[in-house]
Specification:
Blueprint: E1 4-7, H1 12-22, E2 28-31, H2 48-63, E3 67-76, H3 96-103, E4 113-124, E5 127-139, E6 155-157, H4 177-183, H5 185-202
Helix pairs in contact: 1-5, 4-5
Length: 204
């Protein structure tokens, strides 16, 4: 039974989201730095799953305890799926939204559809397992909100599988942590991971 997880990241925003969702299971989640894993592998995969596994495996080989890693990104239809797996390298840190809004300048509302995708990988003594989640929506026209990070201030989420039925005009960055965790790509992937862990504990 898993009681402690190392997350292959030092990103405090990601750690906070994971800790909040897994808290009911009583699982301790620590960063790779806290676990003593000082590694930054090259994320040269062509999919989110491949990049997540690259990160998880690098930390697993260092700490040899259960490790999770995630890779996620924003796929914009009008940009032929960009920035996709290059979301973190699309623009200098903190300038992602500005560059995206500039590229989307002049694109009509009906063509501003996009989705976030997340893949979480677990590596432990039982092998490798994948958990995924998506969040559909559209790109707004300006940054709004201060609660999110990355592209959250310009992403207006919609119902799953839909690009038309949106949750008002609020961006992810205008939502509370609880609201975001219910509908975000990482929140949905983590819920699938949560179900797996819950089943594991039921089997004990």
């Amino acid at each position: 039974m898993i009681s402690k997880l190392v997350m292959a990241t030092n990103n405090e925003n990601k750690l906070r989201e994971v800790r909040e969702i897994l808290k009911p299971l009583g699982i301790e989640v620590i960063s790779q730095r806290e676990a003593g894993a000082d590694c930054e592998p090259e994320e040269n995969g062509t999919t989110f799953a491949e990049n997540a596994e690259i990160k998880a495996r690098a930390v697993w080989e260092t700490v040899n305890v259960p490790v999770i890693a995630d890779d996620s990104g924003l796929c914009v239809d009008a940009l032929d799926g960009r920035p996709g797996v290059f979301s973190a390298r699309y623009a200098p840190k903190g300038e992602e939204c500005e560059k995206l809004l500039e590229e989307m300048s002049g694109v009509p509302d009906s063509e501003r559809t996009a989705f976030f995708e997340c893949c979480i990988v677990l590596i432990d003594g039982g092998g490798v397992r994948f958990f995924s989640g998506s969040c559909y929506g559209k790109i707004g026209y300006q940054k709004k909100g201060a609660n999110g990070f990355g592209y959250d201030p310009v992403f207006v989420p919609c119902e799953e599988g839909s690009s038309g039925m949106c949750f008002g005009d609020r961006t992810l960055a205008e939502m509370s942590s609880e609201e975001k965790n219910r509908i975000s790509h990482r929140g949905r992937a983590l819920k699938n991971f949560y179900k797996y862990l819950s089943g594991e504990r039921s089997a004990e």
